[in-house]
Amino acid sequence: MSFSPITHLRHFDLAVPDYHKQVEFYGKHWGLTATTDGSDLTYFAAEGSPEQYVVRVRRADDKRLDLVSFGAADRQSVEKLAQDLAASGVHLINEPTDVQTAGGGYGFRFFDLEGRTIEVSSDVEVRQHRKIEEREDIPVRLSHVVLNSPEPEKMRAWYEKHLGFRLSDTLNHPRTGDLFYFMRCNAQHHSMAIARGPHASLQHASFELRGLDEYMRGSGRMMRSGWQKLWGPGRHRAGDNTFTYFLDPNGNTMEYTTELETVEEDTWHPSVFNVKESETSDQWGTANDMDDFITREMFNDPDKGLYVAPPV
Q1: Is the pLDDT of residue 2 over 60?
Q2: Residues 106-132: pLDDT tens digits?
Q3: Which PANTHER family does its entry note (predicted)?
Q4: Is 128 exposed, middle or buried (0-12, 13-18, 19+ CB in 10 A)?
């Protein structure tokens, strides 16, 4: 696809069995604001983001990634994308219509190559947001999501062909091949990445903080509160962003980050980074070593919602 209708990442939605603990995690510990708090569905906004919400949590018997939502420039872009996807044989869940979730808008949903529900929308009402102050250690916005795939090469090709994502960089192991594809839809180094894993699942979701000091304060606050730190603090090579990863109450991995690299579209050339070089994972050398335990946790549980659209 020569033209990408995707402008940015809006939000990701989770279904979890331990609903109240997940809601408490985001609202009391992670630094998000509950904008609609219900008995079975809660929307969370980031105070610095114009998006109506960056995470939605739904109560369910089975844990799953309900959907990933992306923005489009206008109604015409939404309609053209729906037509192009349908013509290419992609399974549309619904035709473009008025969006019924918080903020409204105009959009539609479809299944990606592995059966995840993807939403693309435009004209969503802008939320009143504010500047995050110095030393305020809460997320400014949602940065990116990473998806596990047993066939990442096919997933990369699918997102390039159908949604116009571009490859920014690759992580490679000399013996096992490519492990990570960092994909962009705008000037950010990546809004999505595809990681090699044993099954389709959410690998992690990442939230941008104001700066280095706020990122370190937020990381320290989470560690002092007793949340299990998987990995970090450190600084990745691909994307040049900082990282600290934590496990949420339902076993999903959440990341604090900052200073994600921006890309000059006309001059950027993707690099291949060797994961056997320690600087690839952590330029600073401050994080704990990546090991089998961290890898297993980031594999997450197999997603039980593939090819099943969420009820909301």
Answers
A1: no
A2: 999 999 999 999 999 999 999 999 999
A3: GLYOXALASE FAMILY PROTEIN, METALLOTHIOL TRANSFERASE FOSB
A4: exposed
Q: Kindly report the CATH number assigned to the domain that includes residue 294.
A: 3.10.180.10
Q: Which domain holds residue 99?
A: 6-122
Count of domains observed in the chain:
2
- 219 exposed, middle or buried (CB, 10 Å; 0-12, 13-18, 19+)? buried
What residues pair up with 184 in beta bridges, in sequence order? Answer: 166
pLDDT band (50, 70, 90) for residue 3: low
Q: Is the dihedral of CA 185, 190, 143, 153 positive or negative?
A: positive
Q: Does residue 309 sit within a domain?
A: no
In a domain, 191, yes or no: yes
For residue range 39-69, list pLDDT tens digits in order.
Answer: 899 999 999 999 999 999 999 999 999 999 9
Q: How far apart are CA 61 and CA 266, in angstroms?
A: 47
The residues pairing with 229 across neighbouring beta strands, listed in sequence order, are 246
pLDDT band at 71 (very low <50, low <70, confident <90, very high): very high
185 located within any domain: yes
More confident residue, 248 or 3: 248
Q: Quick one: which of 81, 62, 64 has its CA closest to 72?
A: 81
If asked whether residues 110 and 172 sit together in one domain, one would say no
